[in-house]
Design brief:
homodimer; 225 residues; alpha/beta; Rossmann fold; five-stranded parallel beta sheet; 8 helices; globular
């Protein structure tokens, strides 16, 4: 029998690859995308395309307007940084406070309703070491929380948060995804795209994606088109 | 100097009392109310009245539509149970999976933006022992998570989740609130009110409230009016 897993799908290439890897293990995917006050509808369109391509059992979109609090260039009205030194050991202004905690909490609620014990998130501690909620210690603390936060946990169940990408480089992620036949032309990574959706090529997310494709020796279909 | 605290305000008497108790300790309150797919706007109107009465610095209302998943009589379309034996050791159908995890996660995001290290939630392990996310072990696990989930935590800060009601009976909560001069006529507790807002008097929340007022030797102003 197939087990159910709730996967957080952003429309980017990381969550797409993580979802596909867990799907290959035999899980039936239930995809969750959270609109948290992003400036752009493009991410959600990409998430829908990715969900359809994966053939998920269901794709739910939920609104949580974290922009009500400000505190991030991804949700507020400060500019997204460009041409930043991505090796600097600071937390960039694109950090959204408690974002992955909120996302995993909502995924946990859905998992409990489904009777699922598995969550999937495409976090990566290596290329995004600046974000605290992408680290293994965060994931472990969330698994502990899930076991005491839920009726299932009280009844003895434990939850697993799958993070297949957590120690991979962007190039390894891309190589893995391409070997699984994923169409990265469906994905969107840019933090600050042009009105027509074209990536800016200068934000952290664009720079890391370009470096990853270059190192993988592959062409980014989003830029090729 | 006053410290900031983010308090979850539902419009019920528990969160109102918890907020007032922490305010008396000298905290400046920032109130957060989450519309999670409740059937009734009455709770939000009560939350607004309570926030105003407390004189909070700011009151933010956020939508998170947990009814997308179903799984609860509070968000789904199954009936709210009436005349239930409230001493039964089962988790009632009014349980909303991962609700307090979602609420505290959003509060944590706001706290980090504010530079606050204190959260307040009016959970009660005694009268609501059926809900897993009202227990001390849940609160402790969330505090541990917060310290690894946030930029503030990475920089050495720790977060405190204040639960002043966690071991109190409903009568003790009411007695405490009345001694602080709280106006419980502003609050709303019923899970299934009539269209004009009157409480049903038969759901768990109405029954526990009535028992609490009776044991406290006080009149519930909501029923007296």
């Amino acid at each position: 029998m197939a087990f159910d897993a709730v996967v957080l799908l952003s429309g980017g290439l990381d969550s797409y690859t993580a979802a596909a890897m867990v799907q290959r293990q035999g899980f039936t995917l239930h995809a969750l995308s959270v609109r948290y006050g992003q400036r752009h509808a493009i991410e959600m369109a990409a998430a829908r395309a990715v969900a359809q391509s994966l053939g998920v059992a269901r794709h739910v979109e939920i609104d949580v307007d974290l922009s009500a609090f400000g505190g991030s260039s991804l949700t507020g009205d400060t500019p997204v940084p460009k041409d930043r030194d991505i090796d600097r050991a600071e937390i960039p202004s694109t950090y959204v406070p408690a974002r992955n905690t909120v996302f995993l909490s909502i995924a946990l609620g859905w998992a409990e309703v489904l009777g699922a014990r598995d969550l999937v998130i495409g976090v990566n501690a290596r290329d995004y070491s600046g974000y605290p909620d992408c680290r293994p210690e965060f994931i472990e603390a969330f698994e502990r929380l899930a076991s005491v936060a839920t009726a299932a946990g009280v009844n003895g169940a434990s939850f697993t948060v799958h993070t297949p990408l957590i120690q991979m480089t962007k190039a390894e992620i891309i190589t893995t995804g391409l070997s699984l036949g994923l169409d990265y032309g469906l994905t969107h990574s840019c933090y600050d795209p042009a009105p027509d959706g074209r990536p800016c090529r200068r934000c952290d997310s664009c720079v890391l994606r370009a470096l990853g494709f270059a190192e993988a020796g592959a062409i980014d279909p989003v830029l090729a088109s």
